[in-house]
From TrEMBL, chain A:
Keywords: Cell membrane, Membrane, Transmembrane, Transmembrane helix. The keyword Zinc does not apply. The chain crosses the membrane at residues 31-50, 62-80, 92-110. GO terms for cellular component: plasma membrane. The keyword Cell membrane applies. It comes from the Bacteria. It comes from Bacillus yapensis. It is found in: Cell membrane. InterPro entries: LrgA/CidA. It is a multi-pass membrane protein. This is CidA/LrgA family protein. Its main location: membrane.
UniProtKB/TrEMBL annotation, chain B:
The chain crosses the membrane at residues 27-47, 53-76, 88-111, 144-164, 199-217. InterPro entries: CidB/LrgB. It is found in: Cell membrane. This is LrgB family protein. GO terms for cellular component: plasma membrane. The keyword Cell membrane applies. It comes from Bacillus yapensis. It comes from the Bacteria. Keywords: Cell membrane, Membrane, Transmembrane, Transmembrane helix. It is a multi-pass membrane protein. The lineage of its organism: Bacteria, Bacillati, Bacillota, Bacilli, Bacillales.
Amino acid sequence: MKILMIALQILFIHVFLYLGAGVKALLGVPIPASMIGLFLLFIALCLKIVKLEWVEKGAGWLIAELLLFFVPSAVGIINYDDIFSLQGLETILLIGVSTFIVMGTTAFVADKIFKRKDRETA
Amino acid sequence: MIYAAMILMTCILYFVAKKLYKKYPIFILHPLLLCPILIIAVILPFHVSANQYMSGVAFLTHLLGPATVAFAIPIYKHLPVIKKNMSIILISVTTGTLVAIMSSFALSMAFQLNSNFLISVLPRSITTPIAIEVSKDIGGLPTLTTIFVIFTGIIGGIIGPHVIKFLSIKSPLAKGLALGMSAHGVGTNKAREYGEQEATFSTLAMIFAAFITMIWAKSLIPALIHLTSI
């Protein structure tokens, strides 16, 4: 019963994905259909056209199992011999270092502004 | 029939990897590392190529679309918190995207990566569907970008808790923004372990990072790429 409900809600979320695709085709904007769909669903929720209960469980499942949807693309790595070269190794090292810097800077900046704001309101 | 079997196998291996990683959080057991390795080990003896496998389980990749749409729900649920912190979100995520692009660029130059790698690695810090669009836009290879995005996610998910601890970040806001900015959906997945607020800010960081990077794709990135050709 719960699985059926989740499946139905995911089907319903597709309506917004295809509306997004429609808007993209109509306006020719370089934004992915799924991103436009996100905005359309958000607006529909705000305007109470769509009730939270209609999508909450399906959306919760999609977000919780997000990693699963990346798995097939990750298998595609064996198509890239280049990855298993020195350049590939260097790129992975680069990604590690850069991700570390990005995470540190973002956390630091957000935390600093947050603390300052906190002090102002206190 | 064979497609259904491949999807079923992928799901089973994924849930096994997920359970294992939850119990033993060592990096090699990360679902995005262990699961693809196991799948490759299963399909190779059957002479199934990666491309045949990927077209067989295209349905799973397709679900990234509705999953992106689904992020409307946490945003809607946390609207008041978002409105209150809009300036922090914008400032820290704009900084994050700049640091992501500039540091990837500088390190690529330092390692003297070939131009395919250099261009494809620039949009690596944002969610896959949009990274692919940006990659096409700036002249990169979308498949290569996808792989770099996944590596970013895996690394970000693994180092995230350590960085947060090391910098002694306490606020859910800063934790969430840092995870979503640096490791997109995989970081958001990690943020869910901290709590719902962290997950929401992570989601927001992910969405804003994608949009801001789309702007950089039209301005900063072409300028950087132009620099390499001088």
